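If you are new to this repository, start here. Below is one unmodified record pulled from the training split, so you can see the exact layout before writing a loader.
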Amino acid sequence: MESKICGISDAKTLSFLTNYSSPPNYIGFIVNYVKSKRYVNFDKLKKLLKIDKKNSYYVAVLVKPNNQILEKIKDLPFDYYQIYDCRPEEIKSIKAKYQKKIITAFSIKNKNDVNSYKNYQDISDIYLFDGKGYEKSISFDHSLIENINLKKPLMIAGNIKLDDNFENYKKMADIIDISGALETSGLKDVSKIKIFLNKIKQINNET
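And here is the target side for that same chain:
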C-alpha cells in the first residue's frame, strides 16, 4: 500500500516529509483552488518546490485548471497533475501538452459517479475516488468501489481518519490519500504524520 499526504503548504512540514525514514509516496499541493485553506499561491509554491523531493512524487492538485495556471506551473517539478472536474478530452490535451502523469479525481456520491472512470481509462495513470467536499473532507460509501476492477492504481480519499482500519482500505485501494486527519488547529501536525506513515509501513511489513 502506498501513501499520499495532501495539502502541504509550509517548508518545515515538507522538509520533514521528504527526509522521513519512510516518506509518503506522493505529496500534494493545492495549486489553484483558492477556497481551500491549504491553497498555496504561485510565489510560495515556487519556493516550496525547491525542496528536494527525494523519494516522493510531487502532485499538483488542480480543480478545472485554465490555461493561465497550467502555463504558470509548467516548469515546476511536479510529477503528477491531480485533476478534478475536467472532461476526458480536456485532460487528454493537458497530458499531451505538459507531459505529466495524471491522477484523475472523481467526486463520489453514487454508483454513476464511480462508473464515470470508464471515460478516462486511456488518459489516467491513477484513479482517485474522493468525497464531494473539495476543501471540506467528506467521506463516501466505500462499498461503491469494493468490487471495482481497474487495470490501474486506485487511490482513495475523503475523510479518512487516523484510527480507521487501514487493512480494510488495503482490500479496496492501492493508495491512501489523507490530509485533514493529519492536522491540529488547521495545520499539519508532525506527530500525526508519523502515526500515519508508520501505520502504512507496518501494513506493508506484514505482507
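Two things worth knowing about this chain: The chain has one domain: 2-206. The radius of gyration is 16 Å.
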